[in-house]
From TrEMBL:
It comes from the Bacteria. L-glutamate binds at R119, T417, I418, N419, D441, S470, S471, G492. The lineage of its organism: Bacteria, Bacillati, Cyanobacteriota, Cyanophyceae, Oscillatoriophycideae. It comes from Trichodesmium erythraeum (strain IMS101). Cleaved by autocatalysis into a large and a small subunit. This is Glutathione hydrolase proenzyme.
Length: 590
């Protein structure tokens, strides 16, 4: 047995102290970032669920333990999020999911991946200029606060649809944990309270929201118990009959509330709501097949566009927190978000040039424009014109994400939202449903930035029944018949670049999933022209080098709340929730 020998003489102590000081100094050289918190890594050979709240993950895990599959777990987790994290997503909002099912023969066949769009839609009475005043100026808060900001919610229809397609357990069973959390209450955590404090003024203007989310107009405190009796009743009604949200008494309550408070959503809008199955957007990065959400999300298009621009560049050799790497990726992000502003919108209303924007030849052309030593201002980088794009036919803050992989290796990667924190800050009276402000994701006017500073044009103009453009990027990565990873994140405009970096961290930098979701992030979205670096994540030398190249560097506290599941060669599942949030991964059979 080796013996540990402690320093005994003064000399030994002095020498050891010097070594310690030297090591400390070395670890604090200008290019050595302070360490950010590291996520917890969970493993399971069987099945795993990861979401933004432990109680929601617990709900999913319970379904897996009852013999349910990934769909059952995802539905239970999503309903639980609606109760324990109502500020981010819920039955008053909408979203997207990717469903992956394994082939019978993983040697010869591909994973089957389908995309479900259950995003909010504009009400029939919505008009192009509905957020402009008499002078033609955008009334900014009108698309963010109150009933006029609300899009027709799709969550209940989406979850029921996915349940019908592959769910194993009875529908009613899936809502039980959420109903329990709503009826018995749960303890509020820091994240909930800090978001509540920021939206308190708006919430206090709506009596139904005020009754639920405040103590006589005052914010709750961490550790307080939140009981949501109305939402519990609504969830019980949905458990009996999901259609009641669209045609029954819940629909009636929403429409009545809207009519009273100047909102646009009618019973007809709710009756007409249907989720849409879409083809995911898939492309190759190295050996892996990366599939993500197609329009009306911009997530998949621009994730692949940026990966294509990276192409064969050996980023691993360059290093992850290296100025060249950050520069190249930033310039690629700048191009992608410029194109987003002109070309992306609801594909049921316009032709979105998906094939062209994700083509390798277009990526090569854009790559050639990027200088590795010189920054281009965003005013110098324009979206590609439709004509040029056509000649290239030679060959996409709040919200939440959850990922589930089951024993058969079915996988759900789902991002859903009520848009801004606490959505529109209004609850449909008597239902407990906190309603979204997704209408803000439309371009209220050309060049008018939304909540996330994103600008848009004609392609994302408001029209009746149209779907607002999104950045949500639920993603599944496979290698032929084998699942490699599934991931996604909230974060508005930053979603695409967060997902991009998590994927690169795993595929290119060979990080485990805990490291991959924890690693420092950066973001650029064309306009505003700034490179945002995560505070505490990058060394001084790297930051200075980027500034010298001309980047408008802005330091910001961490953003996003990604989660990820990875499957290694032996079939072991590994999952982690972003340490910037309060989520948790939970595996079965441990
Ligand atoms: N509401 C944020 C997004 O869909 O991108």
């Amino acid at each position: 047995m080796p013996q540990i020998r402690f320093p005994q003489t003064k000399n030994q102590i002095v020498i050891l102290s010097c070594v310690a000081v030297f090591l400390w100094l070395f670890s604090c050289t200008p290019n050595s970032p302070k360490s950010l918190p590291l996520a917890e890594l969970k493993r399971s050979k069987e099945s795993i669920v990861v979401s933004a709240h432990p109680l929601a993950s617990e709900a999913g895990k319970l379904m897996l333990e009852k013999g349910g599959n990934a769909v059952d777990a995802a539905v239970a987790t999503a309903f639980a999020i609606s109760v324990v994290e109502p500020f981010s997503a819920g039955i008053g909002g909408g979203g997207f999911l990717l469903l992956g099912t394994p082939p019978e023969n993983s040697e010869t066949q591909q994973y089957k991946i389908r995309a479900l769009d259950f995003r909010e839609r504009a009400p029939k009475a919505a008009t192009r200029n509905m957020y402009l005043n008499e002078k033609g100026e955008v009334e900014k808060r009108a698309s963010l606060d109150g009933h006029l900001a609300v899009g027709v919610p799709g969550t209940v229809a989406g979850l029921y649809n996915i349940h019908k397609s592959l769910g194993k357990l009875p529908w009613k069973e899936l809502l039980k944990p959420a109903i329990r959390y709503a009826r018995d209450g749960f303890e509020l955590r820091d994240d909930f309270v800090s978001k509540l404090e920021k939206r308190l003024e708006v919430i206090n203007k709506n009596p139904a929201a005020r009754d639920i989310f405040t103590k006589n107009g005052q914010a709750y405190e961490p550790g307080d118990l939140l009981i949501q009796t109305d939402q519990a009743q609504t969830l019980e009604t949905i458990a009996e009959n999901p259609q009641s949200f669209y045609t029954g008494k819940i629909a009636q309550a929403i429409a009545t509330d809207m009519a009273k408070a100047g909102g646009l959503i009618t019973l007809e809008d709710l009756q007409n709501y249907t989720p849409i199955w879409r083809e995911p957007i898939c492309g190759k990065f190295r050996q892996a097949k990366v599939c993500a959400m197609p329009p009306p999300s911009s997530g998949g298009v621009h994730l692949l566009q940026i990966l294509n621009i990276v192409g064969e560049t050996n980023l691993q050799q360059w290093g992850r927190e290296n100025a060249d790497t950050i520069h190249l990726l930033t310039e690629a992000m700048r191009v992608a978000y410029a194109d987003r502003s002109l070309h992306l919108g609801d594909p049921d209303f316009l032709e979105v040039p998906v094939k062209e924007l994700t083509s390798l030849s277009y990526a090569q052309q854009r790559r050639q424009e990027i200088s590795l030593t010189k920054v281009r201002r965003s005013t110098e980088v324009q979206p590609v014109s439709p004509e040029v794009l056509r000649s290239n036919i030679l060959e996409s803050p709040d919200t939440t994400h959850l990922t589930v992989v089951d024993q058969e290796r079915n996988v759900i990667s789902m991002t859903y939202t009520i848009n801004g924190s606490f959505g529109a800050g209004v609850v449909a009276a008597g239902t407990g449903i906190l309603l979204n402000n997704e209408m803000d994701d439309f371009a209220a006017a050309p060049e008018a930035p939304n909540l996330y500073g994103l600008v848009g044009d004609e392609a994302n103009a408001i029209a009746p029944r149209k779907t607002p453009l999104s950045s949500m990027t639920p993603t599944i990565v496979t290698d032929n018949g084998r699942l490699i990873m599934a991931t996604g994140s909230p974060g508005g405009s930053t979603i695409i670049t967060t997902v991009l970096q998590v994927i690169l961290n795993v595929l290119e930098y060979k990080m485990n999933v805990a490291e991959a979701v924890s690693a420092p992030r950066f973001h650029h979205q064309w306009l505003p022209d700034k490179l945002i670096l995560e505070t505490g994540g990058f060394g001084e030398a790297t930051v200075n080098e980027l500034k010298q190249r001309g980047h408008n560097v802005v330091m910001q506290r961490g953003w996003g709340n990604a989660n990820v599941v990875f499957q290694d060669e032996s079939g072991m599942l590994e999952a982690a929730a972003d340490p910037r949030g309060e989520g948790e991964a939970m595996g079965t059979g441990q």
